[in-house]
Design a protein that fits this description.
Elements (H helix, E strand, L loop, with lengths): L1 E3 L6 E4 L2 E5 H4 L8 H19 L12 H19 L5 H16 L26
Parallel strand pairs: 1-3
Antiparallel strand pairs: 2-3
Helix pairs in contact: 2-3
Length: about 130
C-alpha cells in the first residue's frame, strides 16, 4: 500500500499494489475524528477486497461490474465490523444502502450502461472503458 499526495482517485487497486490518496490511507492517531478513521478502514478493506473481487476473480464482462463493487463493499464492511464492532458499521451500511435504494427508485433512475467509445471489434475490451 502506497500513499500518494496528489493522487487523483481516492484509491486504486492493482495486482500487488494498492495506491491511495494520502487522506484515504493515513490518519493522525491524536487528532483524527472517528468518521475519518472509519473512512480509512473501509477504504483500505474495500481496496484489499478488490484484490480478490476484480483482480483474482474477475467478472465475465464489464456489464457485471456491479458484482465487483458489490462484493468489495460488502466484504469491506464485514472485515471492518470484525475488527471494530464498537463502530456499528452495519448500521452505517444499512443507512447508505437505504439511501441508494431510495435514489434508485426515482423515475429518473436508469441502469448503468457500458458505453463503447470506439467503433471496431465488439470483443475489443478497450472499447468498453467509459
Amino acid at each position: 500500500m502506497v500513499a500518494i499526495p496528489d493522487f487523483a482517485a481516492g484509491a486504486m487497486e492493482n495486482y500487488g499494489l494498492v495506491t491511495y490518496r494520502e487522506v484515504a490511507l493515513l490518519f493522525d492517531d491524536k487528532s483524527s475524528s472517528a468518521s475519518s478513521r472509519q473512512s480509512v478502514a473501509i477504504t483500505v478493506a474495500h481496496e484489499l477486497a478488490h484484490q480478490w473481487f476484480g483482480n483474482l476473480v474477475t467478472m465475465e464482462w464489464w456489464t457485471h461490474l456491479w458484482l465487483n463493487e458489490g462484493f468489495a463493499t460488502w466484504v469491506s464492511h464485514l472485515a471492518v465490523d470484525s475488527f471494530f464492532p464498537q463502530w456499528n458499521i452495519w448500521t452505517q451500511f444499512l443507512d447508505s444502502t437505504t439511501t441508494a435504494l431510495r435514489l434508485d427508485s426515482l423515475e429518473t433512475s436508469h441502469p448503468i450502461e457500458v458505453i463503447s467509445l470506439f467503433l471496431g471489434k465488439q470483443q475489443d475490451s478497450a472499447a468498453y472503458f467509459y
